[in-house]
Design a protein that fits this description.
The radius of gyration is 19 Å and the shape is elongated. 60% of the residues lie in helices and 0% in strands. The chain folds into 2 domains: 84 residues, Orthogonal Bundle (Endonuclease Iii, domain 2), CATH 1.10.1670.10; 102 residues, Orthogonal Bundle (Endonuclease III, domain 1), CATH 1.10.340. By secondary structure, it is an all-alpha fold. The chain is built from 11 helices and no strands. The two termini are 31 Å apart.
Length: 219
């Protein structure tokens, strides 16, 4: 995708959603960290249902330790891999209390040292909680980047590095959210809704999905 087209791509997404936000519910950087860690192989909707009651009681690593692993499991048992996730959340809470005084560190290196926290989770926390210009490549962003030609790559790290290189500075902080939301609601995996895509003319995807007949009739 040409440089001018990349700028226009983001400009249109930004115009449609000037202040993009994560769809995960959270109270502070710590609850965001927990929510993102729980969201692996789970939907944001499913995580929000579980963390609503949880975050009404727990908003700090110390409170998480007081709840305990068994108590946490009762809150998140509807989420996939909840046993492993509970162990990781409790182990991370111990580190946060003992090493960081209960605060969430802001560097990727420190975040990735926490159990259950990989590069993607670290990037989300850095971006959403601390305003860092990071892009966390999930399945949606990976698909959109490759399908549109915005930043094609064979793996998530390649796509992340390409996105950081081609994304104009003006859009870096919001890019993560714009691309996820675009992939989640328009550029869907099985059947992208090209007929209502704001960047259809900039996209390299050739077999554009036509509008359903009822959409054409109603128009």
């Amino acid at each position: 995708m040409k440089k001018a087209d990349v700028f226009e791509f983001y400009r249109r997404l930004a115009e449609n959603n000037p202040a993009p936000e994560t769809e995960l519910n959270y109270v502070n950087p710590y609850t965001l960290l927990v929510a993102v860690a729980l969201s692996a192989q789970a939907t944001d909707i499913g995580v929000n249902k579980a963390t609503g009651p949880l975050f009404a009681k727990v908003t700090t690593p110390q409170q998480m330790l007081e709840l305990g692993e068994d108590g946490l499991k009762q809150h998140i048992k509807t989420i996939g891999l909840f046993n492993m996730k509970a162990r990781n959340v409790i182990a991370a809470a111990h580190i946060l209390v003992e090493k960081y005084g209960g605060e969430v560190p802001q560097s990727r290196e420190a975040l990735e040292e926490l159990p259950g926290v990989g590069r993607k989770t670290a990037n989300v926390v850095m971006n959403t909680a601390f305003g860092a210009e990071t892009i966390a490549v999930d399945t949606h962003i990976f698909r959109v980047s490759n399908r549109t030609g915005l930043a094609p790559g064979k793996n998530v790290l390649q796509v992340e590095l390409k996105l950081e290189k081609v994304t104009p500075q003006l859009f870096l902080q919001g890019a993560h959210h714009w691309l996820i939301l675009h992939g989640r609601y328009i550029c869907k995996a099985r059947k992208p809704e090209c007929w209502r895509c704001p960047v259809i003319d900039l996209c390299a995807f050739k077999p554009k999905t036509p509008a359903p007949k009822e959409k054409i009739i109603s128009a």
